[in-house]
Amino acid sequence: MDTTSNTPAISISGLEFAYGNRPVLKGIDLEIPRGIAFGVLGANGAGKTTLVRLLIGRLKATAGSVQIFGQQPGPELSSSVGYMPQLNALYEALSVHENLDFFARMLGLSNSEHRAKAVERAMDLVDLSDRAESVMNELSGGMRQRVSLGAALVHEPDLLLLDEPTVGLDPELRATFWQHFKDMTDNGTTILISSHTMDDAAHCDTLGFMRDGKFIATGTPDELRQSTGKPDSNLEDAFLHLSRASA
Amino acid sequence: MMSFDRKLAIATRIAREIRRDRRSLAMIIGAPVIVMSLIGFSFQDQKPVLNQAAPALIATMVMFFVFVLTGISFLRERTQGTLERLLSTAVSRSDLLIGYLAGFLIFALIQSIIILLYTLYVVDVEYSGKIWDIILILLVVTITSVSMGIFVSTFAKNEFQVVQFIPLLLAPQIFLSGVIIPTSQLPGYFQGISGALPLTYANRALRDIMLRGASLSDVSLEIGILALFAIAMLVAAAVTVRKT
After folding, report:
1. Residue A2 confidence (pLDDT)
2. pLDDT at site B202
3. What is the CATH number of domain A1-80+160-247?
4. Cβ <8 Å between B9 and A102
5. Shortest CA gap B80–chain A (Å)
6. How far, in Å, CA of A115 to CA of A121, rounded?
7. Mutant choice from B1, B6, B23, B88 vs A, greatest count of A C-beta within 10 A
8. B89 and A110 in contact by Cβ < 8 A?
9. Is B16 in contact with A79 (Cβ distance < 8 A)?
10. Which residue of A has its CA nearest to B99?
11. Do B17 and A58 touch (CB under 8 A)?
12. pLDDT greater at residue B218 or residue B174
């Protein structure tokens, strides 16, 4: 796979998805270039998680196409894609180190020497090296989120798909997470992050406001703020303005 | 993208999780011993009845405990989101199934051997035949039960629902596979159903080995049919394993 060319990180065209007869995504067109943090913002039930599940290849589109680095999503891309689900999705009886080591093996790091280095690096990155031997049920909610993030980036993917990674985090930890994300995009990693908080939105390079299974607007945070026509608008005002306009 | 390393990682992870869950570990060993004690010692005055029932009871206990253990463990994998996360990696169906089978087989085999040895040497059931032949039959029963547990976990949303499958899947086998009444004494239509249940063949093979000293080749038909059930359940588990 060519992860260095100009092919967009994510390319979505005419995407539709329905759970049975219930349409969830209703025609999405989106192109995300490499090396940026793209925020998918929307209320609960807007279709954010469904979109992420389509991107990791867990769901198949009803219509339209999804491409990651020019390829269909699926297991073949797992070495280039990291996924952090909404639930922490970690093994409670295992330690921080054991969880990260396990997911590193699942992601194809079978060489024990390389894997040991990758796990150390991931623990450093999420600042949990001193808790390596702690089992999950000894950790706070924020620490678990950090382990979950570590498991998503242990194999140094080119694209990170993060489904509401900052839910339940205190402001300090949220800022730490965003510092990690900023460092990663500076190094060329593409990040797609779903969220329903405007605090996350302000950190993204580009945003897509989602409502009822569609993107109602995309642009930089500044562009979206300006769409209200009022100079002192914030992103929340912009979201509400665009959401009402599209209703 | 099959991988030996991934299978090994899944198997060792499961073994580690069970080993650390001390209470469940105690139950894995203690519960079958308690059940076999209750049955065994209440029939101490009727040894011939106990000797006759023991082979079928051993197979039933193994199937019951292994099914519950696997069903709930795999359901937890689905509900806590770890399966979804695993499926976003390069893990294949065979990695998952073989990894799970290997991880559970260790504990299921320990459990089977405890049930067997306790029944033979503490409850003092008389038997003939080779002990390794008995263990081999129990191994095939275990593979069938692990696969059945994974398959059934697809249709359950919580632990309570897994338990609801016990009367649906296990009770008919207990009543119709010859544990209580010999299958030949069942009404004709029930004999037909009995022929479609894996426990019937496990019971028949174990009875022939333990009561009549039969060899493995004498019960090759029963082992073959039991193995077919194991394969069918493995295929069913493989088809549904990726559903979250």
Report:
1. 52
2. 92
3. 3.40.50.300
4. yes
5. 6
6. 10
7. B88
8. no
9. no
10. A106
11. no
12. B218
Distance CA B52, CA A189 (A): 68
Say which residues have a Cβ less than 8 Å from residue A93's Cβ, sequence separation at least 6: A135, A136, A137, B16, B17, B20, B21
Closest CB to B89: pick one of A78, A90, A98: A78
Spans of all domains in chain A: 1-80+160-247, 87-156
- For B235, residues 6+ apart whose C-beta sits below 8 A from its C-beta are none
Query: Closest approach of chain B CAs to the CA of A93, in angstroms?
Result: 6
The pLDDT of residue B68 is above 90: no
The sign of the CA dihedral B10, A161, B151, B233 is negative
Q: Which amino acid is located at A1 in the chain?
A: M
- pTM for the structure as a whole: 0.86
Is A98 exposed, middle or buried (CB count within 10 Å of its CB: 0-12, 13-18, 19+)?
buried
Residues of B at the A interface, defined by Cβ within 8 angstroms: 1, 3, 5-6, 9, 13, 16-17, 20-21, 80-82, 84-92, 244
Contacts of A151 in chain B (CB under 8 A): 85
Please count the structural domains in chain B. 1
Q: How far apart are CA A176 and CA A185, in angstroms?
A: 15
Cβ count within 10 A of residue B34: 10
- DSSP-derived secondary structure letter, A171: H
| Chain A with chain B: Cβ pairs closer than 8 A | 71
- Cβ A105–B1 below 8 Å, yes or no? no
Model pLDDT, residue B244: 62
Q: Do B84 and A105 touch (CB under 8 A)?
A: no
pLDDT greater than 60 at residue A3:
no
Model confidence pLDDT, tens digit, residues A67-88:
999 999 988 898 999 999 988 8
* Per-residue pLDDT tens over the stretch A168-190: 788 888 888 899 899 999 999 99
Structural domain span for residue B62 = 4-240
Complex ipTM value: 0.86
CA distances from A145 to A149, A150, A151 (A): 6, 9, 10
pLDDT at A247 over 80: no
Collapsed DSSP state (helix, strand, coil) of residue A129: helix
Among B216, B28, B184, residue whose Cα is nearest residue B112: B28
Percent of chain A residues past pLDDT 90, beyond the cut: 70
Higher pLDDT, A103 or B111: A103
- Closest residue on chain B to A85 (Cα): B85
